[in-house]
């Protein structure tokens, strides 16, 4: 399965919703919480761009974006393929 990383912060409902969807998909992910290591915030900005909000989700080399984008991929029927390692949807 493709490596999944999700940058999160405590008390973030969008973070919880994104993790919930990935869990329902049986997709193992690595949670990078800024509560655990504040350096993750700078790392997230380097990868996703300054001004990015939480969560920020990366599936393989694809920057999905946040929770809304993750759910939009699922509604469009493109998330399962991305999780399986297929080319990122256009």
UniProtKB/TrEMBL annotation:
BP-aspect Gene Ontology terms = cell redox homeostasis
Q: Where is the Glutaredoxin domain?
A: 4-64
From which domain of life does this come? Bacteria
- InterPro entries this protein is in? Glutaredoxin, Glutaredoxin_subgr, Grx-like_ET, GRX_bact, Thioredoxin-like_sf
GO MF term set: electron transfer activity; glutathione disulfide oxidoreductase activity
Establish whether keyword Cytoplasm is in the entry.
yes
In terms of Pfam families, this protein maps to:
Glutaredoxin
Question: Which residue stretches, if any, does this entry annotate as coiled coil?
Answer: none
Q: What is this protein called?
A: Glutaredoxin
Keyword annotations from UniProtKB, A to Z: Cytoplasm, Electron transport, Redox-active center, Transport
Describe the function of this protein: Has a glutathione-disulfide oxidoreductase activity in the presence of NADPH and glutathione reductase. Reduces low molecular weight disulfides and proteins.
Q: Say which family it is in.
A: Belongs to the glutaredoxin family.
């Amino acid at each position: 399965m493709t490596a999944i990383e999700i940058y999160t912060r405590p008390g973030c409902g969008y973070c919880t919703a994104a993790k919930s969807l990935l869990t329902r998909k049986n997709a193992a992910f690595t949670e990078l919480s800024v509560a655990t290591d504040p350096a993750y915030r700078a790392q997230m900005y380097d990868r996703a761009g300054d001004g990015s909000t939480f969560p920020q989700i990366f599936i393989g080399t694809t920057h999905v974006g946040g929770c809304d984008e993750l759910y939009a991929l699922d509604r469009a029927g493109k998330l399962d393929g991305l999780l399986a390692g297929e080319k990122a949807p256009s």
